[in-house]
Amino acid sequence: MWTVEKIQAYYDELNKAYGLQVVPVIREAKKGKSPLFVKNGELMFIPAFFNHPELDETVKMMLLTELYSCFHIDRRKTGYVDVNPGFMAKGICLERGVDFASDDEIEQNLRKVRRQLYDEIEYCCYFSVGQKLRESAFVSWEVVGITRNGIDDILVTVKPIGCNLGKPERTMTEEELYKRCCNFRDMKNEKVDMRRNLVVISGPSGVGKDSVVKKLLEKYPHLHKTTSVTTRTKRGNEVDGANYYYVSKEQFYDLQTNDSLVEYTLYDGEYYGTFYSEIERHPDDVPLLLVIDGCGRRSLMMRYPMAKTIFIAPPSLEELKARLIVRGENSDEEIERRLTVAKDELEQAYKYDFTVVNEEVESCAKEIAKIISKTVLVAQ
Ligand code: 5GP
Hints:
Layout: H1 4-18, E1 26-28, E2 36-39, E3 42-45, H2 47-50, H3 57-73, H4 85-95, H5 103-117, H6 121-124, E4 132-134, E5 140-148, E6 154-161, E7 170-173, H7 174-181, E8 198-202, H8 209-219, E9 224-225, E10 228-230, E11 244-246, H9 249-257, E12 261-267, E13 270-275, H10 276-281, E14 288-291, H11 294-303, E15 308-313, H12 317-327, H13 332-347, E16 354-357, H14 361-375
Parallel strand pairs: 1-3, 8-14, 8-15, 9-14, 10-11, 15-16
Antiparallel strand pairs: 2-3, 4-5, 5-6, 6-7, 10-13, 12-13
Bound molecules: guanosine-5'-monophosphate.
């Protein structure tokens, strides 16, 4: 039997395992379309629904982990967490040996129990009157009526809105409408990995990322770093396989299409990306640095929701420009383009777990090492 206390205990267990502090207020509720849902920032739990004998164990565990992930992300109020709850929930389920169902399979099970538990239209149907649904770029609907004849026969009437205005109103089963408009994700084939050793390092071009990372690797030899793949040409002192793997644009397109890359980005006309195999070839019990941009960070966090993220900021934009000029690797136009991108990147710095200002390489590396030793792979 699941109770509020048992959910709290389960969340404590997850918090320990993932080094997080997800502590939602959990309250019992009498009725709802789902046995667990969020209302006014609190986790509502319907004992009769959640403990119903026909609610699948897998669905229970998935709902618990998905809501846990949502509350983790909701820390946004105090700090930004750029993780997708569906992916994170899948990662937790995988680690705990829970099969992961698709949205449709979960909804099928919930629908069955909902119909047994409730007579009222308000609760027995997934949809509500007035709800707006998008079927495709050209087809959107508004629910205008719901009727029920017998336990399994729930019909929903929708009227067209938006681009498909002019189409007739129509009535269909709850299942059909769900399949058309709500069957978002089949997470079964999505890759997710909850390893806790990844450290994303981003920062605008010229901020000194490479020098800081070089210093980090010299001073702290237990740290590892991935080598990215790029289409840009090799600079003077760079070494293929050490600084980057250099490939042609055609080769890069192949890597993209055959799903070899966990993330990639287009930066100043060239592609940069990270191989899954680069992450996998390093042990998962040592911190592994990935020097990637903000776009890469977003994709990476889907597949590796437990990665920690550090943004290296310049003391000022003027200082950044001065550093790009001194580096002497870019033309005036390239520098202007890089500064424009840098402004955008600085605006996104709040999305990182930590921001470190690079006044001076050695102290910046030291600060990052301290963050890593306190937060990466640390048992709570
Ligand atoms: P650079 O050409 O100066 O070596 O790198 C340009 C930009 O590409 C830097 O901001 C760097 O962080 C980013 N970058 C390098 N490798 C990767 C990668 O594998 N993925 C992503 N997303 N960005 C990368």
